[in-house]
Amino acid sequence: MAEANAGAGTATAAGPAEEVLAEAGLRLEVDGAVATVTLNRPERRNAMTFATWRGLAAIGRSLPEGVRVVVLRGAGPSFSAGIDLSMFSGEGEGFADGSDAAATDRFIAELQEGYTWLRRPEIVTVAAVHGHAIGGGFQLALACDIRVAADDVRFCMKEPALGLVPDLTGTKPLVEIVGIGRALELCLTARTVHAEEAARLGLAEIVVPRDGLDAAVAELVASLLAVNPGAAVATKRLLWEAPQNTLEQQCAAERREQIGRLRELFGK
Prior knowledge:
Belongs to the enoyl-CoA hydratase/isomerase family. With 268 residues, the protein is an alpha/beta fold.
């Protein structure tokens, strides 16, 4: 897909260095148990670059231990218009031809790290999605545990129309949510899914008017923080394991997690 550049830079206890975030077009705010990650290139509808994906990975690596909820949002009129098309025109870091398969594999894995950390059991991740959520932006929303969408949202898996495939961890949750037939239809037509259909398909757990998005996210975050932290972690771990487990395996996992909760509750 592309060629690797230098690493992510020096991180602080509260997240990556400011210059890393600025280059990535990201903003990070940590308020106690809540971290808010804002895609901050509104003049480009928060189009993503390699620096963006590296910056997201750096945030994941340096997230303060006390954070329980991470909110992903976009500045301006859109969540994210997806990959910055200027990268196809030779501006800045460009695409490789894939001739060195091993190097390209390593590089794509580096970019995917910007998405995979959002599934960690010790945090709950919430995508506050409005306007365009295209390609890599759609996949970023899919990487989150819960999606709160404004009624102006427009989801689209654009990569096949550009001659590419979705490679930022989005294919697995998409198939799990909508099924393989619908996932094929959405990806191979690269059509737009609006809010009503997104709710019907399960691509958004909550849909609200655009001017109510912030309040809906704040209410959800407050509810998430009201749950016992240890129980939240154990339950997320259970639910993420469930699709791959047999019933017998899942029953055993439930017993294991409950034993851990009982020991903590009763100081054993």
